[in-house]
Design brief:
By secondary structure, the chain is an alpha+beta fold. The protein folds into 2 domains: 109 residues, Jelly Rolls; 186 residues, no CATH class. The protein is 32% helix and 21% strand. The radius of gyration is 24 Å and the shape is globular. The N and C termini lie far apart (49 Å).
Length: 345
């Protein structure tokens, strides 16, 4: 049985974003088969390094893995519209099994085609003057701890080492050595809660434009810190993060006020729940004066390191609601109270 993508029932449910006729024709041509798997059937086996890529068209399935003691852990439930096997398609062997709970229908897509889609676009649409990437920075899979580093490595292989590549990063990025060495520049958020996403994109675009116009050598200084910062103490509205990011701005502004040759400064506190070897705070400084770049990186790294104990935070138990109100007023935070079930908007 083969269901053409033009007749796909899932497209009528709103499960996928709208696409044009040309894109739909491309996907239809890419689709290789339409399969049926019985309940309990294994769709992908853990460790399988030639796993295919599927869209679950109908039925339910599970992702699961076998624990060292022999028990099976269910990772999540898959419903119609979910993509199956992407990890194996983009990287290496599958780290988990996928089994059918009910009878399922699967749209089979060629595994090796996934990365080639990016490869073909880069080759077909180029040559480029530069590349801008909007990344998060903390992508982790069970078989690669540095998803963004892997992506940058593959792009560098295609475009060469000379092309400027600038990427914006989330505040919680795990900024790895590979990411720093493979990108021409990395520009991160400076607020948590995040309120500067558009500003960060603007800074990244302006930096890329500047690099293209000036064509001057840019030096990079990268530093990693040897401790973790809890997410609850990464807020930039309070100390110690507030002073650190004030310094980030001052170091970058020094290029304008003191002609120090610094063009960009990024500090990422990291994402400890990723639980990888390089999930701690890191920073990278760029500029035209190598000594100034190294000095700025050292100053910022020393400042962050000096606050290690302060990042442990202070536990303040709320004895009563009045205590809680005082805590909020002290930090100028408004509290909205409502009855259960009451509409807030």
């Amino acid at each position: 049985m083969r269901v053409p993508c033009f007749e796909c029932a899932l497209r009528r449910t709103g499960a996928f974003k709208p696409i044009n006729d040309l894109e739909l024709a491309f996907i239809n041509e890419m689709k290789r088969d339409h399969l049926v798997c019985p309940p309990g059937g294994e769709i992908i086996a853990a460790g399988q390094d030639q796993a295919e890529l599927y869209t679950l068209y109908a039925g339910w399935a599970i992702r699961c893995k076998t624990l060292p003691d022999g028990r099976r852990q269910i990772l999540n439930i898959l419903l119609p519209g979910d993509l199956i096997g992407l990890q194996g398609a983009m990287f290496e062997a599958a780290a988990y099994s996928v089994e059918a709970i009910t009878e399922v229908q699967l749209c089979l897509l060629p595994r090796r085609k996934m990365w080639s889609l990016f490869d073909e676009d880069i080759r077909k649409l180029g040559p480029f003057d530069a590349i801008y990437l909007d990344l998060h920075g903390a992508m982790v899979a069970e078989n690669t701890e540095d998803g963004e580093g892997e992506l940058l490595k593959r792009i560098r292989t295609l475009v060469g080492g000379a092309m400027p590549i600038v990427a914006s990063l989330d505040y919680h990025a795990n900024l790895t050595p590979d990411m720093a060495s493979l990108a021409t520049a990395l520009v991160g958020y400076r607020t948590y809660p995040h309120i500067d996403m558009a500003v960060t994109g603007k800074r990244a675009a302006e930096l890329l434009d500047r690099l293209l116009k000036e064509k001057r050598p840019v030096y990079r200084a990268y530093r990693q810190l040897d401790f973790l910062i809890p997410l609850v103490w990464q807020c930039t509205f309070i100390e110690p993060a507030k002073s650190i990011f004030d310094l980030v701005g001052e170091l970058e502004a020094g290029e304008k006020s003191h002609n120090q040759g610094i063009v960009s400064v990024t500090h990422t506190p990291g994402f400890p729940p990723a639980d990888i070897a390089q999930c701690g705070p890191a920073l990278v400084v760029y500029g035209h004066d190598k000594e100034a770049v190294e000095a700025a990186a050292d100053k910022l790294a020393q400042t962050v390191k000096a606050q290690e104990r302060a990042f442990a935070g202070e536990h303040r138990p709320f004895v009563n609601l009045q205590h809680f109100d005082g805590f909020l007023q002290e930090r100028k935070i408004d509290l909205i109270r409502g009855e259960p079930g009451a509409a807030l908007v």
